[in-house]
Amino acid sequence: MPDDNSRRRFLLGAAGIAAVPVVAGVAGCSSDEPASAAGRTATPTAGGGVTAATAVTLASGRRLGSLEVSSIGLGCQTMPGNLYGPVSSRENMITIIRTAVDQGVTLFDTAEVYGPLESERIVGEALQPVRDRVVIASKFGFEVNQETGERGGLNSRPDNIRRSVEGMLRRLRTDHIDLLYQHRVDPQVPIEDVAGTVKELIAAGKVRHWGLSEPGLRTIRRAHAVQPLTAIQNQYNLLARQPEDQVLPLCEELGIGFVPWAPLSYGFTTGTINPYTRLTQGDFRSAVPQFSRENMTANMAVVQLLQDWAIRKGATPGQLSLAWLQAQKPWIVPIPSATRISHLLENIGTEEVTFTGDELRQFTTALNAIRIQGERLPAPVLAATGVEAPMP
Ligand SMILES: NC(=O)c1ccc[n+]([C@@H]2O[C@H](COP(=O)([O-])OP(=O)(O)OC[C@H]3O[C@@H](n4cnc5c(N)ncnc54)[C@H](OP(=O)(O)O)[C@@H]3O)[C@@H](O)[C@H]2O)c1
């Protein structure tokens, strides 16, 4: 959709950090990853990250409410190496984050429970030298021991939110969190109490913006009435399009941005996973119904569609997945995770992929004709989504 795309593009102005290398002194490229991955010639940057001669630098940004961010963010949940299997090394995760900064990414997504605690520590260490040039998003909402990381159930009581935020500030090595989300609605705590607590944290300068993840619709309205929301973060991808029914229209009505998590369907729509892929033990995806062999076999029709269009558009299936999400609304900012530099650079390269209005209609019509099989999350996790908070 050229009009949409041109409307959404604006230079990042003073916040623009394109091609400004991060400080020196970090480890080099991942040892398990040839520097020439994806056919690029590697060039070390001052940041110690490895970018490539053909790598794209993000020059356009988007707005989540009043918050300016790059058109694609970086999800950092997988960096501790306990969600989709082990990662190459902690040093390499820091290099990836700093490479993302070098390539113009300004939005970094983490949460207290990722690791637990460790994802925030990695993000904090990586971004400390460029803190004033990036947007850090994190999430509270569970009972988490701030020393050991031991995790309990949902807890969005005000004292727990305040305790979580103090821990986050230490781990993220900062005095403020740019975008603080409630990770899941707590069915025991009125959203007015949560919003009121966040409002106080904003007044104290510890938080700049806030959002909700996977909330019920009425909860969005109630939260927004107490303290305006900047973003809703829900799962949204080619295999999980539920936000289109009611959440995206509500965001549009209220002027709230939208951040799709798992924008690559946990990697499935990149075309690098098929029904015969062997996942490592403990890989979260083996519990996701969409990842059963039978459902993956049926859902390969989406990958086939992407592969057909990838040739036509001169892009990769993953880039088309991200570009399709971006084409839906100018205030949508996907946050794919990547623990390989080649994946990060490919995702950033989505910058160069756009749909014309006709192409978007054609692609979406073909997508609509595919019957997606399997739920997007395991049943107990799914049950915690779309929840309405109790009334005060
Ligand atoms: N609010 C919430 O409840 C919630 C829930 C889940 C996630 N999130 C956020 O959303 C972020 C992204 O979600 P996600 O990690 O679950 O799913 P995702 O971004 O859809 O998929 C990540 C997977 O795709 C792979 N990948 C990424 N780019 C690729 C490429 N270009 N080619 C091939 N494979 C590629 C990654 O591999 P490598 O690691 O090998 O690069 C990883 O296995 C998380 O990091 C987190 O910040 C939020």
Q: Could you please describe the fold and organization of this structure?
A:
With 392 residues, this protein is an alpha/beta fold. It has one domain: NADP-dependent oxidoreductase domain (TIM Barrel). Helices cover 34% and strands 14% of the residues. It is built from 12 helices and 13 strands. It has a 7-stranded parallel beta sheet, covered by helices on one side. Strand 6, helix 3 and strand 7 form a beta-alpha-beta unit. The longest helix is centred in the C-terminal third of the chain and has 21 residues. It binds NADP nicotinamide-adenine-dinucleotide phosphate. NADP nicotinamide-adenine-dinucleotide phosphate binds next to helix 10.
- Helix share of residues? 25-40%
Radius of gyration using CA atoms only: 20 Å
Structural class: alpha/beta
Helix-strand sequence: HEEEEEHEHEEEHEHEHEHEHHHHH
Report strand %.
5-15%
* Average pLDDT reading: 90
Please give the order of strands in the largest beta sheet: 5-6-7-10-11-12-13
User: How many structurally independent domains?
Assistant: 1
| Main sheet record | 7 strands, parallel
N-to-C CA distance: 44 Å
CATH architecture: Alpha-Beta Barrel
Given this structure, which CATH class is correct? Alpha Beta
Number of strands: 13
Globally, the shape reads globular
Give the uncertain stretches in residue-range form: 1-20, 23-44
Name given to the CATH homologous superfamily: NADP-dependent oxidoreductase domain
User: What ligand species are in this complex?
Assistant: NADP nicotinamide-adenine-dinucleotide phosphate
CATH topology, by name, is TIM Barrel
Question: What is the tally of helical segments?
Answer: 12
